[in-house]
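Quick one, probably user error.
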């Protein structure tokens, strides 16, 4: 028998599409609003690159951004809602007090149905779930029944777009094993797990500290925890829905760290090369609002990485898959 053919390397990209719903507990609209508005520049620019380089992408959508009006949003809220010990984490509580406008034209910070339809118009773009309410699975006070209600509300939110999500991205990367059967019951086949390394473990927000963030930042520039690439065997054996772990958060351009930007890009390109040579998977992720400021620079950096992928596709047969496509293969 001849030698077995080597499995091609795989690039997976997942995006946490949330507008301001993903930031209500960490900042104010006054402070972060420009980044959210910048999403309306960043998404078309990203889609242009994805189409030009034939990149398959999973867009994990917060369900609360999908209704066309505030009235429709209010009508879509589940009756069972998480009662977090710290209610700052609840977007239902935020909605009671925030000045959320009547529709997308008058409130582009909270409503994004037109952007979702734009994403759907580009080939090979998968619509996944980032939960309905930007739900935190490891915070105190919420229950499995609350999460199940959130999943049902998200499923309903995507029906006007003729989509049923198959891929889950847990907000703040907070996932827990006992919630996976709830995903399976809803037809999910994959979720984005966390990178290897103790600093990336799923944990409540209150246990985060500066030391963890500093080590994660350093790992974005130097291979402290290796290349964060994964074999098919690793992804098959872990769980079902399949755990398709993250490799790198595609950090936005930082003026403070500008002299280290070449090193950060090298880190991601080198991981792609490692995955291509070994037939493994590398998984990049970010939020569209990360590119809402310094958009031209961030898009240029993304294109540099995609150009390297295109070279590896030509020379090493590397391919681009959505999370759902990879899960089907697994």
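Nope, works fine. Designed sequence:
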């Amino acid at each position: 028998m001849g030698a077995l053919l080597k499995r091609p390397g795989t690039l997976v990209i997942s995006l946490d599409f949330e507008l301001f719903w993903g930031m209500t507990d960490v900042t104010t609209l006054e402070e972060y609003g420009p980044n959210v508005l910048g999403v309306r520049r960043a998404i078309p620019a990203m889609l242009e690159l994805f189409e030009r380089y034939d990149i398959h992408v999973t867009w994990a959508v917060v369900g609360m951004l999908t209704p066309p009006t505030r009235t429709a949003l209010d009508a879509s809220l589940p009756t069972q809602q998480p009662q977090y010990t710290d209610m700052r984490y609840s977007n239902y509580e935020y909605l009671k007090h925030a000045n959320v406008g009547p529709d997308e034209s008058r409130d582009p910070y909270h409503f994004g149905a037109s952007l979702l339809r734009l994403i759907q118009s580009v080939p090979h773009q998968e619509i996944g779930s980032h939960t309905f309410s930007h739900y935190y699975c490891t915070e105190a006070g919420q229950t499995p029944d609350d999460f199940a209600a959130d999943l049902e509300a998200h499923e309903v939110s995507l029906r006007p777009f003729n989509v049923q999500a198959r891929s889950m991205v847990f907000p703040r990367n907070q996932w827990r094993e006992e919630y996976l059967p709830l995903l399976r019951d809803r037809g999910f086949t994959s979720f984005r797990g966390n990178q290897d390394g103790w600093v990336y473990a799923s944990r409540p927000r209150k246990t985060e500290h500066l030391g963890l963030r500093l080590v994660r930042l350093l790992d974005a520039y130097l291979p402290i925890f290796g290349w964060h690439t994964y074999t098919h065997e690793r992804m098959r054996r872990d769980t079902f829905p399949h755990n398709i772990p993250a490799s790198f958060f595609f950090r936005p351009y930082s003026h403070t760290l500008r002299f280290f930007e070449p090193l950060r890009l090298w880190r991601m390109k080198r991981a792609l090369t490692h995955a291509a040579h070994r037939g493994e998977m590398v998984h990049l992720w970010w939020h569209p609002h990360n590119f809402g400021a310094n958009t031209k620079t961030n898009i240029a950096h993304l294109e540099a990485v995609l150009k390297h992928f295109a070279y590896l596709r030509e020379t090493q047969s590397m391919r681009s898959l959505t999370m759902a496509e990879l899960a089907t293969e697994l």
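Residues 29-52 form the longest helix (24 residues).
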